[in-house]
Write a structure and sequence with these properties.
- The complex is a heterodimer of chains A (179) and B (832).
- Chain A has two domains: 21-95, Beta-grasp domain (Ubiquitin-like (UB roll), Roll); 105-169, [2Fe-2S]-binding domain (DNA polymerase, domain 1, Orthogonal Bundle), CATH 1.10.150.120.
- Chain A contains six helices and five strands, in the order H-E-E-H-E-E-E-H-H-H-H.
- In chain A, a hairpin with a 2-residue loop joins strand 1 (21-27) and strand 2 (30-36).
- The longest helix of chain A is centred in the last third of the chain and has 14 residues, at 122-135.
- With 179 residues, chain A is α+β, with helices and mostly antiparallel strands.
- Chain A has a five-stranded mixed sheet.
- Chain B is an alpha+beta fold.
- Chain B folds into three domains: 23-31 and 493-638, 2-Layer Sandwich (Aldehyde Oxidoreductase, domain 4); 34-142 and 213-259 and 266-299, Aldehyde Oxidoreductase, domain 3 (Alpha-Beta Complex); 379-476 and 642-827, Aldehyde Oxidoreductase, domain 4 (2-Layer Sandwich), CATH 3.30.365.10.
- Chain B has a seven-stranded mixed sheet. In chain B, strands 7-15-14-13-8 form a five-stranded mixed sheet.
- In chain B, a hairpin with a 5-residue loop joins strand 9 and strand 10.
- In chain B, helix 12 packs across helix 13 and helix 17 packs parallel to helix 18.
- At the A-B interface, helix 3, helix 4, helix 5 and helix 6 of A face helix 1, helix 20 and strand 28 of B.
- Chain B: Pfam families: Ald_Xan_dh_C (PF01315), MoCoBD_1 (PF02738), MoCoBD_2 (PF20256).
- Chain B: It is an enzyme of class 1 (oxidoreductase).
- Chain B: Keywords: Molybdenum, Oxidoreductase.
- Chain B: Residues 14-25, 819-832 have a biased composition (Basic and acidic residues).
- Chain B: Residues 1-26, 790-832 are annotated as: Disordered.
Chain lengths: 179, 832
C-alpha cells in the first residue's frame, strides 16, 4: 500500500490517546513539538498555538489561498492540511521569509509594484508566487495568471501582482501606463 | 527595508508615485487583523443560523449544547430580548417607510436563511462550533417572499404582520422639481416620429466578498468597553452601539485595526457586533466572533438586486429628449443601515453625462426573505450607469450609428461646465471629449471596428464586440446639508488633526478609516507638501475612536476628497498658528513672515526658522508671544460644498464564441478623469481592482438562491470571484480636469472602475452578436446565457432570461405597483 500521508493512526496509538497526538516540526527555522488534536488544521496550529498570525483564513473551502504556506519547500493551503500531517516537516510562513531583516525578492517586488491593497491575501499570494517561481523562474504573464489562480484577491484586479511576480523573476517590470 | 526607486525628496509629494507605508507590515505578516487579537480569559462565540428563509421558531432546546465541553452559555433571542434592541436604520427615505424591527438574534420568527437564532459561547472557537451543532431548533416553515417582482405584488409576505412588502416609494420628476420637462410628453413625441427604446434590466444580487471575513472582539473588563471590529465605520458604529444599547459613547471605544477589504460590505452595524457587546457585558469577559466564509456569504449584506424598467425617448437624429426609470429594489428581510437609500443615490445618476431635458425616476423598495442589501462598491451609481450606458448603445444600434457618435451628440460639452443636470446636481467640471479622444486612440478603435466587420462578413464562429461606457459618478459623500435633504442619518464632513511633535515629526489623525486604500501614504504626501516636511516624518493614525476621536469613516470615495481636504485645512491652521511665533522669535513683524518649503522666513532677509524649530519652541514654551497657546497643532473639520464628479471613457473588446457562448476579454482601455492625482500608483491600483469588480458583475458573479431561499452560492466554489486567470491586464490612463470643489482639485476614484466597467463589458458582448438578432443579455453573461441568446435570437426572443415585456411598475402614477403580479412567471436566473 502506498503511503500518501503520514501514518496518522499508528502514531495515535503510540501516544495511547485518541484526543491528542504528538508532533514535531520546524516552523520558520525553529523546532517545535506539541500535542495537538488530530482534527487541528495546520493553519489553526500556526495561528492559535504558535501565534503565527501572518497566515490567515479566508474561506472554508480551500479556494481563496489566503492560508498558503510552504511545507517542505512546496506551497500548500494550510487550511487543507492537518497539523499532524506536517509532522516531521519543515514549514515556512510569511513571517519566516525575510532573512536578517532583508525582504525576500518577492516581498520587495510586491511593495515596489503596489501589488497589494488591503493585504489580507498578500501572505498567501507571496508564498504561492515564490513556489511558482521555484518551478518556473521566467513565467509569461499567462503562466503567472494560471500559477496564482488558486489565490483570490479582491482589491488589486491581479494586474500589479502579475507585474510583481514578473519583476521578482527579473523580467522587465511591465511597461503599462499608470494613471 | 524601505528601499524603493522613489525620486529625491526635493520634488513635490503630491503627484508622486510613493510606495506605500502600509506595505511593510502587510508583506511580512505583522498585520493586526481583528481575528489575531487574543485577550486573557477570552471566550469564543459561534452562531446557530436558520436553514429556512422564513419560519416560525417553535422551540429551541439548548440543553445538549450547554452540557457540551467547555461551553459557558447558550443564548437565544428570548434570553436577550430586553437588552438587544433593534438594529438601526439610518436612512428612512420616506416618512412612511415600512421598516420591520430588526432584532440581532431572532426571537420567534426567522426571515432569511442564515439569520441568527442562538449564540453559543465556549472556551475555544472549535468547541463553540461543535456545541452549536447540538442546539436543537424546531421550525414551522412559512411561505417565503423570494422573487422580487412577486414580492412587490405582495403575493407572499416577508413579514406577514406588516401586511405588505412595499417599504418605500421614492419619486423624482424633473417637471415637478423644476429641473426639466415632462417625460411623458417627451415619450409621446418620440413615439410620433422619433425613437423610443424600452428595456428591462436586472441588476443581479452581488456579494461584496471582502477577503477578510468579518470579525469582532469585545473586551468589557476595563473602564471602557473596547470593541475591535473589521468595520469601515468605527465612529458611526460607536455612536450607534451607544444609542441602541443605552451606554455613553465615552464608555465605548471602537477600534478598526487593519481591515481586510470592505467595498461597502463592512459599512454596517452588524447583528454580530451587537450580540458581542450584549454577551461580553453580560458575562463580564472578553468575547470573540469570527465568521466563516459561508457565513459571510450568507449573512453579511449583499448588494445591487434591482429590476429596472427604462424608457428612453429620442428624436430621429438621436438627440435624447427624456428618460423614464422605474425600479424595484430588493432590500432583503430588513431595512439595513443605509440600504434603503442606495437606490436613491442612483436616482441622481441615470442622466449620467447627458443633457437631455426630461427625467422621471420612481423606485419601490421591497422586503423579501433574503439577507438585507446595502452599499456595494458604487452603491446606486453602478445600477444607474449600467442602465443609461446600455440604453445609449441600444439607441445607437436602433439608428444604425456608431455608439460613440450618439454619446457625443448628447453629452455636456466642456464649455458648458458648470452644468446643472436634469436631476438637479451641479457638475463642477468635466471634459468628456478629451477622455474619449484619448481612450479611442489607445484602444485602436477604428482598427478593431474594421476587424469586427471582417469577422462578421466571414461568418467567423468567434465574433468580436466593442463596448463603450462614458461614465460619470457622484462621489465624495458629501455636503451634510444635501445629505440631510435626502433624509440620510449622518453628515458628510470629515475631521483631521495635524500635530507638530517636539522633534519636528508630524502626527496626523484622520476620521477616515482605511481598509486597504493607502490612507497612510496618500495623507502623508498631502501633509508633507503642505508643511514642507519629509514624507517619512509624517505618521498617520486612524481607525481608533480613542485616537481619531471624531470622524465619519470611509465609504463613497470620500476619504481623500473630504478627509484629505480636512487635512489641508488643519495643516494650514498649523502654519497660521506658527507665524506669530516665528515673528516673535525672529523679532520681525508677522506681516513680514513668509512660509515656504517648511521654513518661516523674514521677507527680504536670509533670516528664518524651520517648522521643526518652531515646534520645539512651542513645546518648551519658554518664549512665546503673549496669548499664544503652547504646542503646535490644529484640528479642522471640512464639510464640502458639493459632491465631485469623476468621469471617464472605458472601451472594451470581447470575443464571443457563437457556438459555445464562451466570452473572453481581448482588450480593456480606460481613461479616467479624477482631477489632480495625489499618488498615481495608488490610483492605478484602485482602478484595476474596481475594473475587476465591475467586470465580475458583467460576467461571473451572482448570489443565487434556490426555490426554498437557501443561498446556493454560499462558498467560493459557487460564488465566482474572478481569479487572475479570468482577467487580463488593463490599459489605464487619465486626463486631468481638476475639481473646483476642493483645493486639492481631486475627485474620488475608488468606485469609478466598478461603475464604468460593467456596461462597457455587456455592451461589448451584445455588440458581438447583435448582427445575429440579439439586443440584450442579462447579467452575468455566462456562456449558457450567451449561447441561449444567440440560439434564441432567430426565434424572435433575444434573451430568455429577460423579464417579459409587460409593465411591472406603476409609472408616472407610481403608487400602483400591484400589476407586477402579472409577471410572476418570469425567470430570474435562480438556479442557472
Amino acid at each position: 500500500m502506498t503511503h500518501v500521508t503520514p501514518d496518522v493512526p499508528s502514531r495515535a496509538s503510540e501516544q495511547g490517546s485518541r484526543h491528542h497526538m504528538k508532533i514535531e516540526l520546524t516552523v520558520d527555522g525553529a523546532k517545535v513539538s506539541d500535542d495537538v488534536e488530530p482534527r487541528m488544521l495546520l493553519v489553526q496550529y500556526l495561528r492559535e498555538k504558535l501565534g503565527k498570525t501572518g497566515t490567515v483564513i479566508g474561506c472554508d473551502t480551500s479556494n481563496c489561498g489566503a492560508c498558503t504556506v510552504h511545507l517542505d519547500g512546496t506551497s500548500v493551503k494550510s487550511c487543507n492540511v492537518l497539523a499532524v500531517q506536517a509532522d516531521g516537516g519543515e514549514v515556512t510562513t510569511i513571517e519566516g521569509l525575510a532573512q536578517g531583516g532583508e525582504l525576500h525578492p518577492v516581498q520587495q517586488a510586491f511593495h515596489e509594484c503596489h501589488a497589494l491593497q488591503c493585504g489580507f491575501c498578500t501572505p498567501g499570494m507571496i508564498m504561492q508566487s515564490i513556489d511558482l517561481l521555484n518551478d518556473n523562474p521566467a513565467p509569461t504573464e499567462q503562466e503567472v495568471r494560471e500559477g496564482i489562480e488558486g489565490n483570490l484577491c479582491r482589491c488589486t484586479g491581479y494586474q500589479n501582482i502579475v507585474k510583481a511576480v514578473q519583476r521578482a523573476a527579473g523580467a522587465p517590470s511591465g511597461e503599462g501606463v499608470t494613471l | 527595508m524601505t528601499a524603493t526607486q522613489d525620486a529625491p525628496a526635493t520634488q513635490p509629494e503630491i503627484g508622486r508615485e510613493r510606495r506605500r507605508k502600509e506595505d511593510q507590515r502587510l508583506i511580512t505578516g505583522r498585520t493586526r487583523w481583528t481575528d489575531n487579537i487574543v485577550l486573557p480569559g477570552m471566550l469564543h462565540m459561534a452562531m446557530v443560523r436558520s436553514p429556512f428563509a422564513h419560519a416560525r421558531i417553535t422551540s429551541i432546546d439548548t440543553s445538549a449544547a450547554k452540557a457540551s465541553r467547555n461551553v459557558v452559555t447558550v443564548i437565544t433571542g428570548a434570553d436577550v430580548a430586553e437588552e438587544q434592541g433593534a438594529l438601526p436604520n439610518a436612512w428612512p427615505i420616506t416618512p412612511d417607510q415600512v421598516t420591520p424591527a430588526h432584532p440581532p438574534v431572532a426571537v420567534d420568527r426567522v426571515t432569511f436563511a442564515g439569520e441568527i437564532v442562538a449564540v453559543v459561547v465556549a472556551r475555544t472557537a472549535a468547541e463553540a462550533r461543535d456545541a452549536a451543532e447540538l442546539v436543537d431548533v424546531e421550525y414551522d416553515e412559512l411561505p417565503a417572499a423570494l422573487d422580487l417582482k412577486a414580492a412587490a405584488a405582495d403575493e407572499v409576505l416577508a413579514h406577514p404582520d406588516l401586511g405588505t412588502n412595499k417599504s418605500a416609494l421614492w419619486v423624482f420628476d424633473s417637471a415637478q422639481a423644476g429641473t426639466g420637462g415632462d417625460v411623458e410628453e417627451a415619450i409621446a413625441k418620440a413615439r410620433d416620429g422619433g425613437v423610443v427604446i424600452e428595456r428591462e434590466y436586472r441588476q443581479q444580487r452581488l456579494i461584496p466578498a471582502f477577503m477578510e471575513p468579518r470579525s469582532v472582539v469585545v473586551d468589557p473588563t476595563g473602564e471602557q468597553i473596547t470593541m475591535w471590529s473589521a468595520t469601515q465605520i468605527p465612529h458611526i458604529l460607536r455612536f450607534l452601539l451607544a444609542a441602541v444599547l443605552g451606554v455613553s459613547e465615552s464608555k465605548i471605544r471602537v477600534i478598526a485595526p487593519d481591515v481586510g477589504g470592505g467595498f461597502g460590505g463592512k459599512l454596517q452595524t452588524t447583528p454580530e457586533e451587537f450580540i458581542s457587546m450584549v454577551i461580553a457585558r453580560r458575562l463580564g469577559k472578553p468575547v470573540k466572533y469570527t465568521e466563516t466564509r459561508s457565513e459571510s456569504l450568507m449573512a453579511a449584506h449583499h448588494g445591487r438586486d434591482q429590476w429596472q424598467k427604462l424608457t428612453l425617448a429620442a428624436e430621429a437624429d438621436g438627440t435624447v429628449t427624456g428618460l423614464k426609470v422605474e425600479l424595484l429594489a430588493d432590500l432583503g428581510s430588513y431595512v439595513s443601515l443605509v440600504g434603503g437609500g442606495v437606490p436613491v443615490l442612483g436616482a441622481f445618476m441615470f442622466n449620467a453625462i447627458y443633457k437631455f431635458p426630461a427625467y422621471h425616476f420612481a423606485c419601490q423598495t421591497v422586503l423579501t426573505n433574503k439577507v438585507w442589501t446595502d452599499a456595494y462598491r458604487g452603491a446606486g451609481r453602478p445600477e444607474a450607469t449600467y442602465a443609461i450606458e446600455r440604453l445609449m448603445s441600444e439607441l445607437a444600434a436602433e439608428l444604425g450609428v456608431d455608439p460613440l457618435e450618439i454619446r457625443e451628440k448628447n453629452w455636456i460639452t466642456h464649455e458648458e461646465f458648470p452644468f446643472t443636470t436634469v436631476a438637479g446636481l451641479e457638475y463642477d467640471s468635466g471634459n468628456y471629449e478629451a477622455a474619449t479622444a484619448k481612450a479611442k486612440e489607445m484602444f485602436g478603435y477604428d482598427e478593431l471596428r474594421a476587424e469586427q466587420l471582417r469577422r462578421r462578413e466571414a461568418g467567423d464562429p468567434v465574433q468580436l464586440g466593442i463596448g463603450i461606457s462614458t461614465f460619470t459618478e457622484m462621489c465624495g459623500l458629501a455636503p451634510s446639508r444635501v445629505l440631510g435633504s435626502l433624509d440620510y442619518g449622518a453628515g458628510g464632513w470629515e475631521h483631521a488633526s495635524v500635530r507638530m511633535l517636539p522633534t519636528g515629526k508630524v502626527e496626523v489623525i484622520t476620521g477616515a478609516s482605511a481598509h486597504g486604500q493607502g490612507h497612510e501614504t496618500a495623507f502623508s504626501q498631502i501633509v508633507a507638501d503642505r508643511l514642507g516636511v519629509p514624507f517619512e516624518d509624517v505618521e498617520v493614525l486612524h481607525g481608533d475612536t480613542q485616537i481619531a476621536h471624531k470622524g465619519l469613516d470611509t465609504y463613497g470615495s470620500r476619504s481623500l476628497v473630504v478627509g484629505g481636504e480636512a487635512l489641508v485645512k488643519a495643516a494650514d491652521k498649523v502654519i497660521e498658528k506658527a507665524k506669530p511665533i516665528a515673528a516673535h522669535l525672529l523679532e520681525a513683524s508677522v506681516d513680514d513672515i513668509e512660509f515656504s518649503a517648511g521654513r518661516f522666513g523674514v521677507r527680504g532677509t536670509d533670516q528664518g526658522l524651520g517648522i521643526a524649530e518652531i515646534a520645539l519652541a512651542t513645546f518648551a514654551a519658554h518664549n512665546l508671544p503673549d496669548g499664544v497657546e503652547p504646542s503646535l497643532d490644529s484640528d479642522a473639520t471640512y464639510d464640502p460644498v458639493n459632491f465631485n464628479y469623476p468621469h471617464g471613457t472605458h472601451l472594451c473588446a470581447m470575443e464571443v464564441d457563437t457556438e459555445t457562448g464562451q466570452v473572453s476579454m481581448r482588450k480593456y482601455v480606460c481613461v479616467d478623469d479624477i482631477g489632480n492625482v495625489i499618488n498615481p500608483l495608488i490610483v492605478a491600483g484602485q482602478v484595476h481592482g474596481g475594473l475587476a469588480q465591475g467586470i465580475a458583475q458583467a460576467l461571473f458573479e451572482e448570489a443565487v438562491h434556490d426555490e426554498s431561499g437557501t443561498l446556493v452560492s454560499a462558498s467560493f466554489v459557487d460564488y465566482l470571484v474572478p481569479t487572475a486567470a479570468d482577467l487580463i491586464s488593463f490599459e489605464v490612463d487619465h486626463t486631468t480636469t481638476p475639481s473646483l470643489t476642493n483645493t486639492l482639485g481631486t475627485k474620488g476614484v475608488g468606485e469609478a472602475g466598478t461603475i464604468a466597467s460593467t456596461p462597457a463589458v455587456v455592451n461589448a458582448v451584445v455588440d458581438a452578436v447583435r448582427h445575429l438578432g440579439v439586443t440584450d443579455i442579462q447579467m452575468p453573461c455566462t456562456p449558457e446565457r450567451v449561447w441561449r441568446a444567440v440560439n434564441g435570437a432567430g426565434r424572435g426572443g433575444s434573451d430568455p432570461t429577460t423579464g417579459d415585456a409587460a409593465p411591472h411598475f406603476g409609472g408616472a402614477e407610481a403608487n400602483q405597483h400591484s400589476d407586477a403580479a402579472d409577471t410572476a412567471d418570469r425567470t430570474d436566473g435562480a438556479g442557472q
